[in-house]
Design a protein that fits this description.
Layout (H helix, E strand, L loop, with lengths): L1 H21 L3 H18 L12 H13 L2 H20 L11 H23 L12 H25 L1
């Protein structure tokens, strides 16, 4: 029971964060974690399994919606991708993943981290508006921070030197 609780405490913010970064309602992230956990526990041969939404899908879903244009095309693409994954599993072709350069995987994971962090910065600063990066709020906020730091350093240097 304690292990399940700790997995829940890790998975819940991840599910909610990915839903927020994907631009869908928060309950969708919660629902994906619950459904993923139930389906994986029923299908998996392992006694212990941790499942839920993958952070790598945020960038893929966003790019897919932009390039495909609508959600129905995205759902079809997800269905085809799922069929490919089933075929890869059935024919034991997973070892081909070893031929992907690790730099590509690390670059994608770094980009995902940047996306998730950039989506959370406005909330951490108390600005919950979609125009955060273009409104000038960030520039004013940083200007205020750095001017305060500069004033503090000026006072400290004056006290130390004189």
């Amino acid at each position: 029971m304690p292990a399940g609780l700790s997995v829940f405490l890790v998975a819940l913010p991840l599910c909610l964060g990915i839903a927020l970064a994907s631009g869908v309602p928060l309950y969708s992230g919660l629902l994906s974690g619950i459904v993923g956990g139930i389906v994986v526990s029923l299908v998996s041969g392992s006694q212990l399994a941790v499942s839920g939404p993958a952070a790598g899908l945020v960038a893929l879903v966003a790019a897919s919606i932009i390039s495909l244009g609508d959600m129905s095309s995205l759902f079809l693409a997800v269905l085809v991708a799922g069929i490919f994954q089933l075929l890869i599993g059935i024919f034991r072709l997973a070892s081909f993943a070893n031929y992907f350069p690790s730099a590509v995987i690390k670059g994608m994971m770094a980009a995902i981290g940047i996306i998730l962090i950039s989506k959370q910065i406005p909330l951490a600063l108390g600005y919950n508006q979609p125009d955060f990066w273009t409104s000038g709020f960030l520039q004013l906020f940083l200007l205020e921070i750095f001017s305060g730091i500069f004033q503090s350093l000026t006072i400290i240097l004056q006290e130390v030197l004189f």
